[in-house]
Amino acid sequence: MSRRPFPLGYVRDDLADFTGYSSARTSAPAGAVAPAAAASGEQGVPVEQGAPVDLAWLNANEAATPNRADAGASVRRYPDPQPAALRGRLAGLWGVATDELLVTRGSDEGIDLLVRACCAPGGATRGDASGPAAGAARGGVVVAPPTFGMYAVTARLHGAAVHAVPQLVEPAEGPGGGERWRVDVDAVLRTARQQQADLVLLPSPGNPTGQGVPVEDLVRLAEGLRRDEAPALLVVDEAYADFTDAPSAATLLATHENVVVLRTLSKAHGLAGARIGAVLARAELVALLGRVQAPYPLAVPAVQLALAATEPAALEDTADRVRRTLAERDRVTTALRDLAGRPGSGIEAVLVAEANFVTLRCTDPGSVLDALEEQGVVARALATHPGLADGVRVTLGTPEQDDRVLRALGAHPPAHRPPTGRPTRTTPEETP
């Protein structure tokens, strides 16, 4: 069977010749850099000549002069849709080529772009037009609850089906015990095949389970989904990847065309309010997603923050922040596991933690939340998560905040330890 060129076998048929919206920035004269690029340290320079030119940019119906609130005159112009400096910086940080990365408004926009590009509303037809499966019905997304709720929300808003394959839970091996959840790889592949799913969406480490998907399982999934008659993308959401030693799924991009990775600056880098994320994928898919993306997705102040946050000194701070979080994770989980199962503790089990939070199974989640609130701690109830309705998720904070959590739950706070553990990458790599 002949296959259409990548990525056409994975996206909606009607997007094969979709060019997207041609904005004032993207339709500018060839080689000219828009003035908004100055926010990234670039100049209005035609590439062919290599010398600054005083261009009068009158193609976007912007205000002729800045607003008085815009002291630096940095937001009068529409922003660069994909700032070259930031794109290159993030590509180096996450180990991919620049054309394999699309900057997004956090991971949420990446999820939305993938669902809109790959899932036909209502499960309309999409298949290999040259093979016997042409026109085979496609079936939306596969998720593995308990999982991040935006996968299902995004799919349903788009009119795509959501197929849930529950994770498996088992006692954790090794010192400390606890509870471990894992993706049922065979069941996910079976469901994706039966439903002819467009996407399989998995967080790694997971939210709210806190555990990663082993790379060998990701390889099995990617290979099982790369079927000729109805291929599907494997989307690995690595929002919490900075808190684990596991290799990134981005290492699979070169060998598995159907692997997509989502990254963000919201967690370890402390920029949740800036809404900066990225889709990592084969260059052809990144280009198509760029045509699906809104014309001006990134605000200039957010881009400036992201560039400052990925300078070498800031990355050293991020590495230190991660080390401190890992030290707190060890300290807090040890104390809570000593408490789990004791009569009157209210805690039945502590899930294995590979992210920046700890998830508890509770005999009475409401009482646990009340006890935390009495100490001025706001935690997250997991009542809507299948399989973890008795769960409470607590983000790791400062040592002082975490001591309040432990005291509220009746645990004796262990002594604070000097931070140890794996540092994150502190300097961007050169990117082709």
From TrEMBL:
<dbReference type="GO" id="GO:0004400">
    <property type="term" value="F:histidinol-phosphate transaminase activity"/>
</dbReference>
<dbReference type="InterPro" id="IPR015421">
    <property type="entry name" value="PyrdxlP-dep_Trfase_major"/>
</dbReference>
<keyword id="KW-0808">Transferase</keyword>
<dbReference type="Pfam" id="PF00155">
    <property type="entry name" value="Aminotran_1_2"/>
</dbReference>
<feature type="compositionally biased region" description="Low complexity">
    <location>
        <begin position="422"/>
        <end position="432"/>
    </location>
</feature>
<keyword id="KW-0032">Aminotransferase</keyword>
<dbReference type="GO" id="GO:0030170">
    <property type="term" value="F:pyridoxal phosphate binding"/>
</dbReference>
<feature type="region of interest" description="Disordered">
    <location>
        <begin position="409"/>
        <end position="432"/>
    </location>
</feature>
<protein>
    <submittedName>
        <fullName>Histidinol-phosphate transaminase</fullName>
        <ecNumber>2.6.1.9</ecNumber>
    </submittedName>
</protein>
<keyword id="KW-0663">Pyridoxal phosphate</keyword>
<dbReference type="InterPro" id="IPR015424">
    <property type="entry name" value="PyrdxlP-dep_Trfase"/>
</dbReference>
<dbReference type="InterPro" id="IPR004839">
    <property type="entry name" value="Aminotransferase_I/II_large"/>
</dbReference>
<dbReference type="InterPro" id="IPR015422">
    <property type="entry name" value="PyrdxlP-dep_Trfase_small"/>
</dbReference>
<feature type="domain" description="Aminotransferase class I/classII large">
    <location>
        <begin position="63"/>
        <end position="409"/>
    </location>
</feature>
